[in-house]
């Protein structure tokens, strides 16, 4: 009698393969074999981490060739069945091996055979003697006194990290108090944050539209449904999320909020902290690996009530998930641009469907595909048309700057407005979407222009560093004193970035306090917080910056927003350029006038007659979106068709194009092999060189695959990729497929 063998199907991060079969380890595992367990398995000549996907009794390999699992890594499965279902779906949809999806979901440390980080941190607590001691006894040792005071106020103790954050370096105070027997070491639950134990603050009374939105969603908490929360900036969308989160937590379930870039919005995090009861797990890439892992485990173990994170949080295991919210659902940073190229929003919708819970997409400027789904009734469309607290919407006007004498890029009219607002004690926001000092450095004698040696791109001068930087590949060199070509000294800086604008504004408004918000000015730890604080306290009078300004910040005293230059994006080639520009204008405009003062937005342009600007001005974002959707329909572009983009890059110029030509031929050759109904309706467009053909020393090309129906495109891709993967590849060629690409 031969008992059925137990075969373990395991996902490993390895190209091309879906899963691998293994036999159980000889040592019995600490618990029954369960999908979701992390395992160490032999692979090639070494060992790899894998995740158990399924138990089965058959394999397509000879049984005696199967290797045994080395050992089980964790005492519990990290993924539940529902998580594995989502990740399997994502892998299939984005045409990646399942290992790629699982490893995108795992925190970095757990992709290696590391044990789980213990859920405790070193800390201190006051002993009975320490609690009894009158603090005045320590008046001659202020640090000891402060430390003991903090611990007396925290009966469970505090982590060393929290103490240092509160008191600064502790120095010898710890040892001194310990020697006196007043405090002792302890270990504390890692993520315990004092605010978790505070009762949440109460929020404002909801206005009617908010109430209607909350009721509509709350009435459907037990079933899948997609809700578009289409609310102008400042209309109180976040408040709606908070009320729903309260209800979900009260039911004993977990809520997930996905935001585009959490590092940029410390205010949002702070707001959830004060309003939501219980543990919050924050997940984003700026955390250190252990913090991230701890928070991830708190989500996975069901401990965190709220998971607040960037796109990858949509992949985290959340066993009691009851509600998903995607804030700024239109934002491109919700899309992962390498590896598993997923859309955080689209996966959120799929996840809600698998779990059977609602998902809320919030935006003041919904993506055109989202609006289309709302129009078709697939999403329930909830509108917040007015600003909360009675604030007036900003008034947008176009300013024709042709033939205007500009100073610091500002027209006379805008300068007058600025003077008036400054006199009234208000704040001003200036938007210029280009960082650095000058985008072009050129020689007046011979015409030399500073270009990146590795990209088809110009170098940007960063004057404070005296360096030229390539914003595409990160290459840099020292600012030349003379022309590198002809040695002439007349090397000139053309154009303006935020660094230059700041210098010019200081000269133009000498009495005014000016601050800059861009990636350069906020690179240092804590710098972003300082810039934002100075705006909130009113210290900063003029804040200038790049699109970082548009990311959900709330500047209540800003009454004037100047948008300096957007003309170059009006004629960009990417079919999404108009949509992005409109969203950016509305989002930047939305920073103005949130409190009692009405905001004014001045948009400088040399193309005041441009249809995009005209429709935004006269019909708002909704009007713009209707016109833009009509154009998309005529051109059969998304959301009226579906796209996938194959990209290839190689060190030699023709190689990437050649490869994609062969890939295209593979697609055409499928005509006889797979059912005609899959092939018909598939269009292969290209290959063409990428918009910036050479980047980081590699030549890039792309091939577009277009189809009116998503399922057909999916089936075609699966067949086609099987063929493309067998194509011979010359050294150094890399290619990838992007399903639902954002950038063409
Ligand atoms: P959004 O997320 O739509 O930009 P927020 O939820 O951040 O809007 O709300 C904007 C501002 O209005 C915040 O300062 C918020 O505290 C306040 N607010 C929200 N809802 C109300 C309300 N019902 N009554 C008064 N103020 C509110
Ligand atoms: Zn020269
Ligand atoms: Zn470069």
List descriptors.
single chain, 744 residues, alpha/beta, GIY-YIG endonuclease, Rossmann fold, 5 domains, 7-stranded parallel sheet, 21 helices, 30 strands, binds adenosine-5'-diphosphate, binds zinc ion, nucleotide-binding
Summarize the structure in words.
The chain is α/β, with parallel strands linked by helices and 744 residues long. It folds into five domains: 7-111, 3-Layer(aba) Sandwich (GIY-YIG endonuclease); 120-189; 207-384, P-loop containing nucleotide triphosphate hydrolases (Rossmann fold); 395-437 and 495-633, Rossmann fold; 642-739, Alpha-Beta Plaits, CATH 3.30.70. Helix content is 31%, strand content 23%. Strands 11-12-10-13-14-9-15 form a seven-stranded parallel sheet, sandwiched between helices. Strands 16-26-25-17-24-23 form a six-stranded parallel sheet, with helices on both faces. A hairpin with a 6-residue loop joins strand 20 (467-469) and strand 21. Helix 17 (577-589) packs antiparallel against helix 18 (611-635). The termini are far apart. The mean pLDDT is 91. The site of one zinc ion has 8 residues, from loops.
């Amino acid at each position: 009698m031969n008992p059925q063998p137990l075969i373990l199907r395991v996902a490993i991060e390895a190209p091309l393969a879906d899963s691998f079969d293994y036999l159980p380890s000889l040592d019995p595992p600490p618990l029954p074999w369960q999908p979701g367990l992390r395992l160490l398995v032999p692979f090639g000549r070494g060992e790899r981490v894998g995740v158990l996907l399924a138990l089965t009794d058959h394999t397509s390999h000879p049984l005696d060739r199967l290797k045994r699992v080395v050992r089980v890594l964790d005492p519990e499965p990290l993924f539940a069945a529902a998580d594995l279902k989502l990740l399997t779906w994502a892998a299939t949809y984005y045409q990646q091996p399942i290992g790629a999806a699982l490893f995108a979901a795992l925190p970095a440390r757990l992709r290696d055979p590391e044990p789980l980080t213990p859920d405790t941190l070193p800390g201190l607590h006051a002993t009975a003697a320490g609690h009894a001691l009158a603090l005045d006894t320590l008046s001659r040792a202020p640090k000891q006194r402060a430390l003991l005071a903090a611990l007396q106020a925290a009966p469970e103790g505090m982590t060393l990290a929290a103490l240092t954050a509160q008191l600064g370096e502790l120095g010898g105070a710890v040892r001194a108090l310990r020697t006196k027997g007043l405090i002792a070491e302890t270990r504390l639950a890692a993520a315990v944050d004092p605010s978790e134990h505070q009762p949440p603050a109460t929020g404002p009374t909801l206005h009617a539209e908010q109430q209607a939105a909350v009721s509509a969603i709350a009435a459907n908490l037990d079933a899948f449904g997609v809700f578009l929360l289409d609310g102008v900036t400042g209309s109180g969308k976040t408040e709606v999320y908070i009320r729903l989160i309260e209800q979900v937590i009260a039911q004993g379930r977990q809520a997930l909020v996905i935001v585009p870039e959490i590092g940029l919005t410390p205010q949002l995090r702070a707001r959830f902290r004060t309003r939501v009861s219980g543990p919050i797990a924050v997940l984003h890439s700026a955390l250190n690996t252990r913090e991230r892992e701890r928070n991830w485990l708190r989500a996975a173990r069901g401990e965190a009530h709220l998971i607040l994170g960037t796109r990858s949080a949509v992949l985290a295991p959340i066993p009691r998930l009851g509600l998903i919210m995607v804030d700024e659902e239109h934002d491109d940073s919700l899309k992962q641009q390498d590896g598993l190229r997923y859309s955080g929003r689209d996966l959120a919708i799929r996840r809600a469907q698998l779990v059977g819970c609602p998902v809320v997409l919030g935006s003041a400027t919904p993506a055109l595909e989202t609006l289309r789904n709302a129009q078709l009734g697939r999403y329930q469309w909830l509108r917040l048309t007015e600003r909360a607290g009675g604030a007036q919407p900003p008034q947008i006007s176009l300013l024709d700057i042709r033939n205007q004498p500009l100073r610091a890029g500002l027209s006379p009219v805008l300068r007058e407005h600025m003077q008036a607002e400054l006199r009234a004690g208000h704040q001003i926001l200036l938007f210029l979407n280009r960082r650095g000092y000058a985008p072009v450095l050129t020689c007046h004698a011979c015409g030399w222009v500073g270009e990146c040696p590795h990209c088809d791109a110009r170098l940007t001068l960063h004057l404070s560093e005296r360096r030229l930087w390539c914003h595409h590949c990160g290459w840099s060199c020292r600012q030349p004193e003379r022309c590198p070509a002809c040695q002439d000294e007349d090397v000139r800086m053309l154009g303006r970035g935020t660094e230059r604008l700041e210098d010019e504004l200081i000269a133009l408004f000498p009495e005014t306090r000016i601050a800059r918000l861009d990636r350069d000015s906020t690179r240092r730890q804590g710098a972003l917080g300082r810039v934002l604080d100075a705006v909130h306290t009113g210290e900063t009078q003029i804040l200038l910056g790049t699109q970082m300004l548009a990311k959900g910040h709330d500047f209540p005293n800003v009454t004037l927003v100047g948008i300096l230059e957007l003309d170059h994006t009006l004629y960009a080639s990417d079919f999404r350029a108009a949509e992005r520009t409109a969203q950016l204008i509305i989002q930047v405009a939305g920073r103005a006038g949130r409190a009692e003062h009405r905001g004014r937005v001045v948009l400088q342009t040399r193309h005041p007659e441009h249809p995009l600007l005209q429709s935004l001005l006269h019909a708002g974002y909704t009007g713009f979106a209707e016109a833009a959707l009509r154009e998309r329909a005529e051109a059969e572009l998304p959301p009226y068709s579906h796209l996938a983009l194959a990209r290839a890059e190689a060190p030699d110029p023709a190689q990437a194009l050649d490869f994609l030509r062969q890939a295209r031929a593979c697609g055409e050759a499928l005509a006889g092999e797979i059912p005609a109904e899959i092939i018909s309706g598939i269009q292969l467009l290209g290959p063409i060189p990428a918009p910036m053909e050479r980047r980081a020393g590699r030549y890039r090309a792309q091939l577009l695959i277009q189809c009116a129906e998503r399922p057909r495109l999916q089936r075609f891709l699966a067949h086609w990729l099987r063929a493309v993967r067998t194509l011979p590849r010359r050294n150094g060629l890399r290619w990838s497929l992007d399903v639902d690409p954002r950038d063409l």
